[in-house]
Design brief:
The protein is of the alpha+beta class. It is built from 10 helices and 17 strands.
Length: 403
């Protein structure tokens, strides 16, 4: 299986050049934290859980969308316009460079260097617009024993494909919106990246095949007796049946969203999250969850994250990447390379906690809340300006100040 491990990006208007994000472990693996990592192959180790924190508008959702978009472009035969990259890519120079890193379970590794250009095009109705295309691309491959720190080092690989050196006939057949990496994959199995980013602000319900697990309902709301799904001969769900323990009534609805009239938003979100978690754990996928705490009790979130961190449950090498405003959740990340902090400056700096200089006795949440990394807390002068504005809009405050 080939899996997207990480990427480096330059030219994006939101992120500092050479911003790097990866599932690969970046620190020493001790006996105490060994169960927190995945031994993906003989050399490469990955974190089971990665947390992403940052104040508003630092780019947490965009970072996840880039990861998902790159996976779709390189591994799933999708053109740029079919992926999240179409919206996630923004550049003041209309040029973005990406170095994507892939690895297989049989110790093969690949680095794909791609230059994306945002250029003007003329459509069939003569309207001018802009679209992203691939202008340059190289694929590097490596095999054999190397150190973990040099695993994706270009100098330790050989060039496998160069877009500029393809035969003219191949260039004519290759769309400028498609990657050449798909030619390398062949029939190999590829790892899926699942994402809930598009559903962050919408409480969309997911349904199981025939019934919501009884254990899940007991955990989320023990007043529910069952929640089942009736299907037609083609396997399409035609209605949903909900029954509470202290009632003889069976509530039947045709759309799952109607269940929200009878269940709390937290229960609906819990069912949805569990469905996504279970699917990712089954298939060894990378699951991206933005603002994981929305509508859900903090302890439920902690327990669900724990499923990925538990090696007895996470047997298929699945990875969870989540962002949160529950800063206390990051205190559960026992390895510093499990947390990325997005710091807002002129452009967002993505800092891996194990690479930051800080006082080791502080909790992860304290580092963030105390603004130890300079840019993880709202600006105090902006807060004072906002306070002053509130006072000026209150007549009583004005009278009190004048007296």
């Amino acid at each position: 299986m080939i899996k997207l491990i990480g990427f480096k990006i330059s030219g994006h208007s939101l992120f500092k050049d050479d911003t790097y994000f990866s599932l690969q472990t970046g620190g020493q693996i001790t006996n105490k934290t060994r169960n927190r990592v995945i031994e993906f192959n003989k050399i490469l180790t990955l974190n089971r859980v990665v947390g992403v924190v940052g104040i508003n508008a630092t780019g947490k959702s965009t970072l996840m969308n880039i990861f998902k978009g790159l996976n779709s472009l390189y591994l799933f035969d999708q053109s740029i316009d079919q992926t999240e990259l179409k919206e996630a890519f923004r550049s003041n120079e209309n040029l973005i460079e990406v170095e994507a890193q892939f690895a297989s379970e049989d110790d093969q590794r690949f680095v794909v260097q791609t230059t994306f250009r945002h250029q003007k095009v003329v459509s069939e109705n003569d309207e001018k617009s802009r679209e992203w295309i691939i202008s340059k691309e190289k694929v590097f491959a490596g095999e054999g024993r190397v150190s973990k720190s040099k695993y994706f080092d270009i100098s330790k690989t050989r060039i496998l494909l160069n877009r500029d050196e393809l035969p003219e006939e191949s260039k004519k057949l290759l769309s400028p919106k498609d990657s050449i990496f798909r030619a390398i994959i062949g029939k190999r199995r590829v790892s899926t990246v699942m994402s809930t980013v598009s559903m962050t602000n919408i409480n969309v319900a997911r349904t199981f095949d025939d019934t919501t697990p009884k254990e899940l309902l007991e955990y989320l709301d023990n007043s529910i007796e069952y929640l089942t799904y009736e299907k037609d001969n083609e396997g399409k769900t035609i209605n949903f049946k909900l029954k509470f323990k202290n009632s003889n009534e069976v509530i039947t609805v045709s759309k799952f969203q109607e269940i929200s009239h009878f269940l709390s938003s937290g229960t609906i979100k819990g069912i949805t999250l569990f469905f996504e978690f279970l699917t990712a754990l089954r298939f060894g996928a990378t699951l991206l969850v933005d603002e994981i705490e929305l509508h859900v009790n903090k302890q439920i979130v902690r327990d669900f994250i724990g499923f990925f961190a538990d090696p007895e449950i996470n047997v298929n090498n699945a990875s969870l990447v989540y962002s949160t405003h529950y800063i206390e959740l990051t205190d559960d990340l026992t390895r510093n390379d499990e947390e990325y902090v997005l710091v807002r400056k002129n452009r967002t700096e993505v800092i891996r906690l194990n690479n930051a200089v800080f006082r080791t006795e502080l909790k992860n949440s304290e580092l963030f809340q105390n603004n130890k990394l300079n840019g993880t807390a709202p600006n105090y002068s902006n807060y004072m300006a906002l306070r002053k504005s509130l006072i000026s809009h209150n007549p009583k405050s004005k009278t009190k100040q004048s007296s």
